[in-house]
Design brief:
about 400 residues; alpha+beta; eight-stranded mixed sheet
Length: about 400
């Protein structure tokens, strides 16, 4: 019998398994894919996520994998342009936007090095119950046979369509409609920093990634999903760049798209019930929001750091574990709701609502960097809306 079984070995699952193993627990990590395997992603790791990779001892491997460092950010909308970068977190200001077939195996290797038993190509089919308590999982092995394993705690880190959430009956406690659809690809010969461009109804994001390539993403309102697909995803993508960021379009014309188009119109916005007897959810399984602010990876890291920190050495104490999971759920409410609401505000794709404020930041580099820091998580929204900012907004 394991102390914990973690379902899903990507940005939430592998770190959760690793941290539990480092706390002395016997952990099984199950993943339906065979690594390395790509997955849809916004790629970007904000400063708090980079700081955690360093704390976990995995940042050097990410750097060695050839992911280009990012040290500058720009935002352009309706005649205003800001340039700067988020403030550092634990001394880390440089960020990265790794390909997922690079990042996820690094995380899984970190788990294995901590003593986790990692099984790939294993599809979990069901949860095992004793009364109302989850006590294990039933899954299909790579050879096609059915197997079961038991554990004190099952961690569902299996994504937006989480089987663990469904089988445990975890309801959505907060939910908003889908707001955008996103499409992206990778380009060679298009130099870039972390760049954001916005106009009403459109959002463009760029970030340098592995192998000298640049990720270029476009966002459209969910209401245009069918229209975008009918017109052709590639044509809609290029037209969005041309009309939103003409200078970028010229850069792209001098470069080459080297992969197919990727994307989705199924970006859910919710918080689920986080835990129950014998189970807990992490990552996209417990909380998902529009990817437009690129917080998925960073938030997954922060969540599992919170979860495993609250559990500590109390996994086998019923009363203490119940308290730990409640504290984790409270962290989700306290630490992530503002990012959730912030992402949905951006996903409305209505820059005119905040352009006047942004325009007044021009020339004040400290406030610009703090503004970027509210999205990264290096600076709180409450701290940003300070007397200094209010004085600037009142001027002119």
């Amino acid at each position: 019998m394991y102390d914990a079984i973690v379902i899903g070995a990507r940005c939430a699952g592998s770190p959760a398994a690793m941290l539990l193993a480092r706390q002395g627990y016997r952990v099984l990590l199950l993943e339906k894919a065979k690594f390395p395997q790509d997955t849809l992603s916004s790629h970007y790791i904000h400063q708090p996520g980079v700081a955690l990779l360093d704390r976990w001892g995995l940042l050097d491997e990410l750097r060695d994998a050839g992911c280009r460092p990012i040290n500058h950010q720009s935002y352009e909308a309706l005649g205003v342009r800001l340039e700067g970068f988020s403030l550092p977190v634990d001394g880390h200001r440089t960020t990265y936007a790794p390909r997922r077939f690079v990042l996820d195996p690094i995380l899984a290797r970190g788990a294995v090095a901590a003593g986790v038993e990692f099984r790939e190509s294993c599809a979990v089919n069901d949860l095992l119950h004793e009364g109302d308590r989850v006590v294990g999982v039933r899954y299909t092995t790579p050879g096609g046979t059915e197997a079961t394993e038991r554990a004190r705690l099952v961690v569902g880190a299996d994504g937006m369509r989480s089987l663990v959430a469904r089988k445990a009956g975890a309801p959505k406690v907060v939910e908003r409609p889908r707001m955008t659809c996103a499409y992206y690809s990778y380009w060679d010969g298009v130099p870039a920093d972390f760049e954001l461009y916005e106009r009403p109804g459109r959002w463009i994001a760029l970030a340098p990634t592995n192998d000298g390539l640049t990720l270029i993403m476009t966002y459209f309102p969910q209401s245009e999903f069918s229209q975008v697909r009918a017109a052709g995803v590639e044509a809609s993508y290029l037209e969005a760049v041309r009309t939103t960021a003409p200078e970028l379009y010229e850069r792209m014309s001098a470069g080459t798209r080297v992969e197919q188009m990727y994307g989705t119109g199924a970006q859910e916005n919710y918080f689920r019930k986080a835990h129950g007897p014998g189970w807990v959810l992490a990552g996209d399984a417990v909380h998902h929001k529009d990817s437009i602010t690129a917080r998925g990876i960073t938030d997954a890291f922060l969540q599992v750091q919170s979860l495993t920190g609250h559990i500590g050495d109390q996994l086998h104490d019923d009363e203490a574990l119940a308290v730990a999971l409640k504290r984790y759920e409270r962290d989700l409410d306290d630490k992530f709701y503002s990012f959730y609401q912030g992402a949905l505000n951006v996903a409305e794709l209505k820059p005119e609502r905040h352009t006047e404020m942004v325009r007044k930041l021009v020339g004040n580099q400290d406030l610009i960097d703090r503004y970027f820091s509210t999205v990264s998580g290096a600076y709180s929204f409450d701290d940003f809306y300070s007397n200094e900012l209010l004085t600037v907004l009142d001027q002119g």
